[in-house]
Design brief:
- The complex is a heterodimer.
- By secondary structure, chain A is an alpha+beta fold.
- Helix content of chain A is 53%, strand content 20%.
- A 5-stranded antiparallel β-sheet of chain A has the order 2-1-5-4-3, sandwiched between helices. Chain A has a 5-stranded mixed β-sheet with strand order 7-9-10-12-11, with helices on one face.
- In chain A, 24% of the residues are buried.
- The longest helix of chain B has 19 residues.
- Chain B is globular, with a radius of gyration of 14 Å.
- Classes of the chains: A alpha+beta, B alpha/beta.
- Chains A and B meet through helix 6 of A and helix 1 and helix 5 of B.
């Protein structure tokens, strides 16, 4: 069985190895070893910059087979005149001053025609008397490093350019935002103007309407006996047209009031609200033998008047545009992360998809007044209310199967600020 | 108890620029059985002259009730209200604003200036009569004339 070496014995062995290697080194020409193996170029020159001795790497660089082949020649025989001149001047300075050059970066053209970057260090060589008898230089190829540096510089430049253009873009964006803000402000003002305009017009239109209505009534009251059947019929038509116009003006007024009129925000239990709507719509429901259902509606903070008007219009429509034996409207709510999605579904006549866009526009009617009464403002009012409450409304429907109207209301809608807009509205 | 003679001793003043509305109001008064004499002026300036018995109105009676439109030529209804309600001697004349404006701002302003009642003109004549009945009831209350 082999015995394990002790630590002391192990150290002894190491020391022996070291001494043995040192002995071998001493037997060799270490300068030659260095010259032949180092990838840097090494060159010894006399005081007139003529090659005395060069290493293998320098042979490759200047394109000679051996050091002897270069002996006595100068950089002018191998490099570009510019480089040769610069190197010569440097070396003469070293010879004259004895001051070495350390780490100077130069660009050389190799024998293979390729240009390389090198960093060179040159020092004077002195004889035993201290007299300068030549120069030794060593150059290291740093082309890769230099290229890396160049590309770094380039990308730095590109980065700088990108930064500048980013900054410009930011400024542009800020300017655009300013423009948008201005446009928004103008739009807001024009909306306010429009609402006021609608309001004023609606009122001024009412005066002549009142006159037409009143004097038609007087005509009938005072001249009933003198009017024949035809005249009576004409008067009926006038009365009906005027009523229609009155309703339209009323609707326009409601439309202009949404968002304009200041309304308190309060907590509304929509179940109670629906109960109230059912009570208000009782005559309509009874007349059509209809049914209004609701289930699990939430409590929300909202302007009660508008949410009531919204549901009222849709429920009224659902019962009105309905040929089912038992016209039914069902209100439900789906609570999502950020919003409540309300559904008002009826079993009515339904709406063709191609009319969906027109549906929410003011005074758009899909039916003649003989078929279904109304001004065609109800859904426009609903749309306006949905907008005002910061929500969205849309419809899904199929002819003959009924329609479902949706209202998505964000949970954290900032009604206070939406309201402010209505509150600060000036009329004069 | 104060004794009152005929309603005609308590004339009303209608301040209204629209001739149609004047006719309608008169007729509604008849239909609503208001028999008080109804004087009519068609702008705010004349209204103030009438009440202050100035110029051609120097012999005008003091109205027992004023029906005042807000939108008037020259001097508007608000100014008439202000003028009357800021005058110690005239302040007690009840003023009913009868206008087509439903603006909260107008309503608030009118009450602030001391109008006693604010009525929005209805579009249909039927409702106009109802309005006049309201005015009549209001008049009966303020004049303490027992209902007949």
């Amino acid at each position: 069985m082999r015995r394990k070496k002790t630590a002391q014995e192990s150290n002894k062995t190491h020391e022996n190895d070291l001494l043995e290697t040192a002995r071998l080194f001493r037997e060799m020409d270490l300068l030659q070893v260095l010259m032949d193996n180092i990838p840097d170029t090494i060159y010894f020159k006399d005081i007139k910059s003529r090659f005395i001795l060069i290493n293998k790497a320098q042979c490759l660089t200047i394109g000679v087979k051996s050091s002897e082949e270069a002996f006595g020649k100068t950089d002018f025989d191998f490099f570009t005149p510019e480089h040769a001149r610069a190197a010569y001047d440097d070396e003469q300075k070293i010879v004259a001053s004895g001051v070495p050059i350390i780490g100077k970066v130069e660009r050389i053209r190799r024998a293979d025609g390729e240009f390389r970057w090198v960093t060179c260090t040159k020092v004077p060589i002195r004889d035993n008397n201290g007299r300068i008898i030549g120069v030794v230089g060593i150059s290291r190829d740093i082309t890769e490093l230099k290229e890396l540096e160049e590309s770094l510089k380039e990308s730095e430049e590109r980065l700088r350019e990108a930064n500048v253009s980013l900054q410009l873009r930011c400024e542009e964006l800020a300017r655009l935002k300013e423009e948008v803000d201005l446009a928004n402000k103008a739009l807001q003002q024009s909306n306010i103007d429009l609402e006021n305009y609608t309001y004023v017009i609606s009122h001024d239109l009412k005066a002549p309407l009142r006159a037409i209505k009143a004097f038609t009534t007087f005509l009938v009251e005072d001249y009933k006996d003198k009017l024949d059947k035809n005249a009576q019929e004409y008067i009926n038509r006038i009365v009906k047209a005027v009523s229609n116009m009155e309703n339209m003006i009323e609707d326009l007024l409601v439309l202009s009031r949404v968002g304009r009129k200041y309304m308190n925000i309060e907590e509304v239990d929509l179940n109670n609200l629906l109960e109230e709507i059912i009570f208000d719509l009782d005559p309509v429901i009874k007349k059509r033998d209809g049914l209004v259902k609701y289930k699990d509606l939430p409590k929300i903070r909202i302007q009660r008047v508008w949410i009531k008007q919204f549901f009222m219009n849709l429920i009224d429509n659902g019962l009105k545009f309905n040929k089912s034996e038992r016209p039914t409207v069902e209100v439900s709510c789906e609570e999502k992360d950020n919003e409540f999605v309300f559904k008002v579904a009826d079993n009515g006549i339904g709406i063709d998809r191609k009319y969906f866009d027109r549906l929410f526009k003011i005074f758009e009617r899909l039916h003649t007044e003989e078929e279904y009464e109304g001004t065609g403002a109800g859904l426009a009012i609903c749309k306006r209310i949905a907008d005002h409450l910061g929500g969205r409304t849309w419809v899904e429907s199929e002819v003959g199967k009924g329609s479902t109207f949706y209202l998505a209301l964000p949970k954290n809608v900032n009604l206070e600020s939406a309201n402010k807009l209505g509150r600060i509205t000036k009329y004069d | 108890m104060i004794k009152f003679s005929a309603d005609s001793e308590y004339p009303f003043l209608l301040v209204e620029d629209n001739p149609d509305d004047i006719l309608i109001t008169k007729r509604a008064f008849a239909a609503g059985r208001i028999y008080n004499k109804l004087y009519v002026v068609q702008n705010g300036e004349e209204a103030v002259d009438f009440i202050r018995k100035r110029g051609k109105y120097k012999d005008a009676p003091t109205p027992a009730l004023i029906l005042l439109d807000l939108k008037l030529p020259k001097v508007d209804g608000f100014e008439v209200l202000k003028e009357i309600k800021s005058d110690e001697n005239l302040r007690s004349i009840p003023i009913i604003v009868l206008t087509s404006s439903e603006r909260e701002k107008d309503i608030e302003e009118a009450y602030k200036m001391g109008c006693n009642n604010y009525i929005v003109k209805p579009v249909s004549f039927e409702n106009f009569i109802k309005t006049v009945v309201e005015i009549r009831q209001y008049w009966l209350i303020i004049s303490k004339i027992p209902a007949r």
